[in-house]
Amino acid sequence: MNTLTTERPIEQQAIGQIAVDLPGATAIFRRLKLDFCCGGQVSLGEACERKGLDTARVVAELAALRRDDAAPETPDANALIDHILTRYHAVHREQLPELVRMARRVEAVHSDHPDAPHGLAEHLEIMEAELLEHMEKEEQVLFPAIEGGSSGLAGPITVMRDEHIGHGEHLERLAALTHDHTPPQGACNTWRALYAGTAQLTNDLISHIHLENNVLFARFGA
């Protein structure tokens, strides 16, 4: 589950630090036009007050980003699929467009920096396209077949497993481009938030693939 690094109420925390500690927060801040980069030293409460925003509503939006990673205990296949769709498929669709946007910004603004992640936005776009296609196959073909009790699932499951290997290779490239998700000393809040997000994407995708390969698919002898 996502957690912030301080026990202070979130409205008292610096907006820039929230952006780094809570992947997904940048999309909310961008939509609300809250400056988490250059103006990131301001507390969330003060930033909301300056913009005339309801702080409680913003806090509630941020709270919704803290996700429970626990899969259902001794679940049946349908419960597992519901968990995968909600916890991973929906989350990947939210994560990747925002990471691409931040990567483009970091690459442009810090293009002369020796550690600038040149090629990161393009790589994330490739990951997004392949993941979207992969998840669509699961949602439209494999998962309904499992829920409907179809036989002969070994072939489609093998295809999904093979594609998972490709996703794993993309994660290795992602780690290389981001120096294992470690921003350089003195990096701006956007850069730090970007790498926090790529680390979260990596953890989520690894957990997602594990749950499918080793729990869901294993039930069908594939």
From TrEMBL:
GO terms for cellular component: cytoplasm. Residues 81-219 form the Hemerythrin-like domain. The keyword Metal-binding applies. GO terms for molecular function: metal ion binding. It holds the Pfam family Hemerythrin. Its main location: cytoplasm. InterPro entries: Hemerythrin-like, RIC_family. It is found in: Cytoplasm. This is Iron-sulfur cluster repair protein YtfE. It comes from Hydrogenophaga pseudoflava.
